[in-house]
Each structure stands twice: as structure tokens, then as C-alpha cells.
Amino acid sequence: MSFDEVFDVIVIGAGHAGCEAASASARLGAETGLITLNLDLVGQMSCNPAIGGIAKGHLVREIDALGGIMGRVIDRTGIQFRLLNRSRGPAVQSPRAQADRMRYRSEMRRTLEATSNLHLRQGKVVDFVLDHGKLAGVVLEDGRRFSTQAVVVSTGTFLNGLIHTGRRTYSGGRAGEPAAIELSEALKRLGFPVGRLKTGTPPRLDGRTIDWNAFEPQPGDQIPVPFSFATDSLEQKQIKCYIGYTTEQVHDAIRANIAESPLYSGKIKGVGPRYCPSIEDKVVKFSDKSRHQLFLEPEGHDTNEVYLNGFSTSLPAEMQQDLVRMIPGLEETRIIRPGYAIEYDFVDPRELGPDLQTARVPGLFHAGQINGTTGYEEAACQGLLAGINAALYTQRLESLRLRREESYIGVLVEDLIKQGVDEPYRIFTSRAEYRLALRYDNADERLERYGRELGLVGDSDWERFNARQERLGRLRAALENVRLRRSDAQHAAVSALIGSDLGDSISLSQLAKRPKVTADLIASLLPGELKPVAETDLNSVLADSLYAGYLDTQRAAVAKLYQHDTLKIPRQTTFRRIAGLSNESVERLDRARPLTFGEARRLPGLTPGALSTLLAYLSAQQKSL
Amino acid sequence: MSTIVALSTPRGRGALAVIRLSGPDAITIAQRMGLYEVEDRRATLTTLTRPRDGEKLDQVLLTCFRAPHSLTGEDVVEISCHGSPAVVRSIIDTTLELGAVLAGPGEFTLRALSNGKINLAQAEAVRDLIAAQTDAAVKQASRQLNGELSNALAPLKEKLIEVIVVLESALEFVEDDLPAPRAEQIEKELLAVSAGVEKLARTYASGRLLQEGIKVTITGRPNVGKSSIFNSLIERERAIVTDIPGTTRDTLSEAIDLEGIPVILTDTAGVRETTDGIETLGIERTRRAMGDSDLVLVVLDGSAELGPPDHDLLIQTAHTRRLVVRNKSDLPEFNHASTSCIAELQPINVSARTGEGLATLRSAILASLNNNGFESDGLLITNARHYDLLCSAQRELEEARAALVVRHSEEVVLAPLHNALRFMGQITGETTTEDILSEIFATFCIGK
Asked: Model's pTM, two decimal places?
């Protein structure tokens, strides 16, 4: 078979997963082709123009620590930055930013074009070429054939996408863009189990027709927290968002027309995300709420377009205008683009290994919504992992796997590949057992070494990382060793401030755990040679000591609970022969082939009974050895 | 999945024996042995034959239970046959010839467990039930078998999940328009959960005694008649009784049933200074048995003056739960009015030889246990694993409460709460993150 071009790795789709995948793969030295339907829409934000949020911001920080690009691109194009959960502990704080949608796209494209070994191609992949069961190439709709050893499929909602507004449905990957129907058929031909999910998006408004005075302004942080560890200052002029509310009148009108919604008329079969409900769902399921919160998010500096966050809908386009105009402040508003719902195909992520490679076709990797996730950040981190591992695969090197104890990416991947999905999967901090250890501010300490070892973290970033590690080391030593003694000048003042006597001598780290003691106070007590101390450094070190005790007891409790997790399941175990296991349990175990009891415990669908049966069997085997 | 077979009634000769078959081939095997009409849950009289040679085995009552409405959740056939070991053996052998396999220990229960017919707590209760020694213990085991422990825990777990849902939502959905969690309210709810768990855990003191038996140790200086009292209480001649001091050289234990409460009675070597190696060893064991017991019977010889060893014993056991027993009330030398210092100890006068005072002794043993809050009514925790898990859960709940009191951020309060939930889940079945998220989405309108 002849090929028009030869690549090592091909990435299908240039959304948030595809961009990370292609960038990482190319920088690891693989000749990488990034094929997309429309080169002008690289890095397009299909839904809200924002990146980050609780747990999602953690993911972006982890991507950045590993050497990914999302954090840098949003820092250069973000127009409003807020650190969420500021009033809570550092483990659950997370950065979020509004993006200038167009500038994000062009900055992403500029970043990709500046990457050597990375080749952007416009086209539509319709089939795979296999050689003895292994990936050998892809076929494009226009007849071109590209040779490759590995493919990352990151097609988002384009995979057999079907758009709904009211009773109208049409094929599409996003409003105004064609769907990838043939690729979905190709995956099915390879034997992949394909399911259906749904998501939706709200209408976009003409900003000139909004009465902004009717809304409550929501400014960004005075001192913005960037996403990338490498970012020192932000470039974009910062803007405000605005908060408003729906009214009972809106709710009544929606309820009166609920039959027009494809969600309620039964037209939509796919399962949507519960944490991103449409306005129809909100008024039906929470009918006792008299108002629902809305956010007006400007889409960027070069446009009047405004994103009406909180009003995702698939009601008929002509009805949306009337509904929006019932909202106080939007009486005169015109819709630029109507909202819609979209159904798309996903492939059961239990087909994947921890490297995001499919077991069915060596060399084939899946990342993003094709794995049943939702969210740009969820997509990007999978893209990064898949891109890294696709390149490593072509270089016959050992793959990168991340553990759930060390990263949210590890949590997400393990949840996906072990449990599968039955609704679009979004990351939450509560999904991480070791939430207190996985902070946004220590993502570098957790992961940057991996990025460096791979070769994704450049020299200047590595120097910056090491310099920070050194500063943190000195700070940690100071917090332990510097003591506030009764003879010290500040002793009385600090005691008075916190309202209790400090005792004769107290270390700064102990002092920091006392109520009312702020980071600023600790900073003022540091020895002169450490001043001025960077706030981010001090916060990281204080967070470590704040959680240290809890992490220890947490580890002890988990160790006790899961003391059997390390119990090995011999490879030759025939689950069918274990007395008392139901056929269903045997099937699940046979499919997953867990190697330890811990792996078995995390399998979906195994009842506590089946687990105790397995445990009883394994313990008995162990004893008989 | 194989079809298993086992004798479900005790081994040995009896009027009836019940053999149970469970698995996909249970009904086919029964049919090949002579069951003509399969009617669910209806006993059918039939003569079983061996297909190999047509040999008639026994006239039996057969009952079929179709899956999933059976003990194990599989097809089950119960064969009530005559209780001769030979008949039982020939029927079981025939089922084996037809493809059944002998059930391993507890295999019926395991199958019931994995088919969701019973939960883990119930399965453990089955084991307790089989091992139960007395009526009261059987009653407790069957309460747990009926899911009472899970039922008792369920409302506590629900309340805990409610608290977790409120705190998690506050953390995860800061941008949503959610009501702020009210710390005082949550504190109150946690206190209630913690108290509930603690109350359950506390019943283990009684529950353990019920399950394992109350350990009662008989002690005293040599030749005061410890072994005689032991034999009288167990109502047979187990310990060798002689007039020679130091006859009992090792500890001897026997289980008895005192009004439904299992009691493990231990006879010990008399405590005295001795040079005899074996006897020294026995005395060492005596001390260990005493330290290990729930109640000590200090036996004195009421027909003789108290000597230094008696006083030593009384001092040694002063802080142990004990009953002072004055033996040999049948002898003329017996002094019915004991000296004032002993009278304070409210001794019980008995004669092991005539049985006089033994009834009083029995009720005194029970009474002393009841004084300690022992109860055999209500749900009792009888399983050490459950006790351990409940205690761990309660510790975590208290840690969460402490964090809440000083108004720590939610994630700090949540860490021990999730641990508590995991510990409780080890008894009733796990609550996954998905379950909690579902609860959040059902409770609050989430999503921008």
C-alpha cells in the first residue's frame, strides 16, 4: 500500500485533547500529524469560554507540571482570573479563568506551529489502515493516505454528532460543522463497544443589547493566580463578568413548552451530565427554586458576543429569544447563536490501559470525550498522556502511568478504565481519596520530575523548578527551627493578637496552626535572610504542615481499610473455579484480570459479597502456600 | 458454576436427615434420581433411585426452590431422607455420580452472599449461628441474620452521607447558588451519628460474652474443693478429685449454659508455694486464667481457718470482678457465720458434696454479670470485626467533630468523615463516590 505522507504519530482532532497530544508527541521527537476538519478552529472552546475551576484547575496545573501547554495558553489569553474557594483550605482552592475565545484559538495555533516535528493537516479521517492487527495508517475522505505507527483519536463531540434544537435534528460536530460519521463506523468495525452521550450549550447574546446595569458585576482577583508555574505576569486586559437570575415567569414558560424540548420528548437517547443540566432540567427537577443563577461571560476583547452561562437549552431556536427576553436586564437582547443539545458517540473506556492505549488495536489511543469525559481540562490531560504514550510506543519505550495517589490525572484515568462511564465524567476533588495531598500549588512537586525525565520540561523551566524547591527547603527548615521565645520582642504582641499565651517557646510551624495566625504574620517573623518571601512559596510550605497530621491518619485509616489490597491474585487463577462467585462476578473478573485484591476491589459491579468470597479464597490460598 | 451438595443436618443417626443441592443442575439431578413433577416450593414424596443400576435408595420428601427465590439464589433441592448414615451416604454418592460436587465449608452461605441473598453482616451471623452454643447466643445471631445490624447502621450511615453531601457540595460547587452549610446544625448531626455508632459498639461487651461465653475461673489455695465445685457446676465428674492437695495441675475448661448465657468454667491448680516443676507451671497458668476471665470465684475452705495464701488471694483479686465462695458447708467444722472481714465480701456458702448452696451460686454468677450492664435483649454486636470497625468509625467521627468545632475548612472535616463512612461500609457494603455525587445532584441544583 502506498502512502502520501509518513508520520510516526497521527492525532485526529485538534481540540483540547488533540492539541496537547500533538504537542507532546512532537516534542518527544515523533513526527506528528495533527489532522483536523477546520484549521481555523484549532483549540476551539465549544462551550463556555473558561478554563479551570475546582479540581479542573488542579488538572491544568498538573498538565503544566508535566510540560503540557494548556496553562501557558490560557495565561496568555485569559481575561479574568479568579482563585476559587479562597476562604477554604489550600487543597480545595483552584484557579479559574475566562478566556478570550478567539485569542485562545490563535495562541494555541501559534504554539503548535512553533513546535518542530508537528505538522498540521486539514482533512477528515474516515478509516484506519491495519497491518497484522497493528495500526499502520489512516485514510482521509479526500483520498489521501497517511502512514503512521500510532493514532490518538480525540474527536470530541464530532464522533457521529447529532444536533438537536426543538424537534429539529441534524448531523454535526458543533453548530455549523460536519460530524465524523465514518470514523465512528470504522471504530465499530474494529469491534469497539460504542455508546451514546449528550451535552448542551446555551445561547450566545449580542452584548450591545444587554442592560448591564441590571446585573451584579463579578470582578476578577486583584492579584490573579496564573495557571502555569512559568507565568510571571498576565498579558491581557482584565474584564468583569456579570451575575443575574431567571424568574418564575421564565420557568413557567419553559414548563409550558417542555414538550418541545428533545430532552423531554424522548428524542435524545444519550445521557447528559448531571452537573451541567439544561435550563429545562433545572426548572423541572428543582421546581421549588424560584430563581436560577446565570452568568454573563464576555467572549473576548474583539467581539460583542456574550455567553449566557447557566442557560443551556435545546428548546426550539425561535423560542429561545422569547425566553431570554423574560430575564430581567435582557428584555431587548438578541441572540447571536442559539443554544442546542448534541448527542455523540463514545467508546467504552474500559477498552483502555492506564497508558490510554486500546487493548484491541495496538498503537491506537483514545483521549477526551471519546472516553466519555466532559470538560476541556479533562480532555487536555488525557490528550497529554495519550500523546506522550503514543510517542513512547513508537520509540519502544516504557509508557507513562500516573497513580491516583499522586495526581488527579491518575484518579481520572483509573476511574475511567476501571469503572467505565454511564454519564459524561467530570473530575471532582471528592473523587480523590488523597485530596489533601493533591493541591494545585504542589503539582510541580508531584509531577515536574516526570515531565523533565520525559524531555517535555525545558531547561529554563527545570531551573525555575529547582530554584523553587530550594527556596521551599529553606523555608521548611526555618519554620521548624525558628522559635518565638518569651524573650523575643514580638512574643507579647503575637500572644495578644491571637488571644492566648504562646508559652515560653513555640516553633513557627506550630504557631502557624493556631487559629487567627495568618501567613503574613508568619512571614513577618521569618529571619531576615529569607525576606522578602514569595507568598506562593510560604503558602505551599504552610499547606504541607497544615495537612501533615491529617494525611498521616488518613494514610493509616486507608491502610487499615485496604490492608488486603496488596494481596496478589496469581495469574493462573481460574475465577470460574472459586466456589460461591456468581457468573456475573466471574465474567467481570475475567474481563479485568485484576492482579491484586485492591484492583479487584475497585472493579465496578462486584458486590461486597463477591469481594469477601474472593478475599476468603485468596487468604486460604495464601495460607496453603 | 458447579452444583454443590451437602448434608445440612448434623452427622450421625437421627429420625430425619436433610441433604441440600444447590446450583444450575440441582433440579436435573433430582429429576434423574426420580423427581417426576417439579413444583416450586412444594414437598413431593418420591422414591429415589440410582440411575446407574436402578437401585432404590430411600423414600424421601423432595422440595424444589427455583432461582432466585432460594436460600442461595440458585436452584435448590432439599431432600428429606431417613436419618441413617448409610442412606445419606448413598444419596450423596449418587448426586456426585450425576455431576454434583461436595460443598466446601460455608459454601452455601458464600453463594447466598455473592448472589446478594444476604449481606456480609448476615453471612457472618450465619457463621455465628452455626457456632452458637446457647439459646441467647442463637437469638443474637439470628437477629443479625435478619439484617438487624445493617438496619441499625443504615439510618446512621444515611445521616452521615447527608452531612458529607452538604459539605462536599459547598466545596465542589462554589460557583453555584447553594445554601451555606450551617456548622452548628452539622455538629449536632455528627454528634447524633457518633453517639449512635458508639451505642452499638458498646453492646459488644455483652455481645462478646454471649458469643464467646463468659469466662469464669475458679481459684483458691489447694484442697479447698475447687474441682468439686467445678464438677458440681458442670454436673459431671470431669476433674479428678482427691484429698491430696495439688491434684489439679493444669487448667480445665468446660462450657455450661446458665439460663441461656454460655459460661466457660475453668478449674485451676491451687495457688501455693511449691517446688514441683509441673505444679509451678500449673500455678502459672492459673494466674493467667484469672487475668483472662470475666469473673473469678475465690473458693475458701469454710471448715478451716484462713491462712496466708487465702489472704493473699483475696488481696490479689480485690480489684477483679469476683465472688467469694465458702465451701464444705456440710462439715461439722464449718463456721456458718464467717469472720467480719470475710462477711463484708458477702460470701456464698456451698457444699460441693451435697449440692447445698449451688443454686444460689449460679444465680450469683448471673447477677454479678447483670450488674455490669450485661443484657441479652436488644441488638448486640457479637463479632470482633464489627466492633473494631464501629470503634474506628466512631474515632473518625469524633476527629471530624473536633475539626468542625474549631471551624476548620470543609476538606479537613471531610477526610475523617469519608474514613468513617468507609469503616461503616465494611459492615453494610461500600458507598462509592458515585453514590455521593448522585446524592448531591438529587439534593441540589448544580451546574452553571
From this structure: 0.77
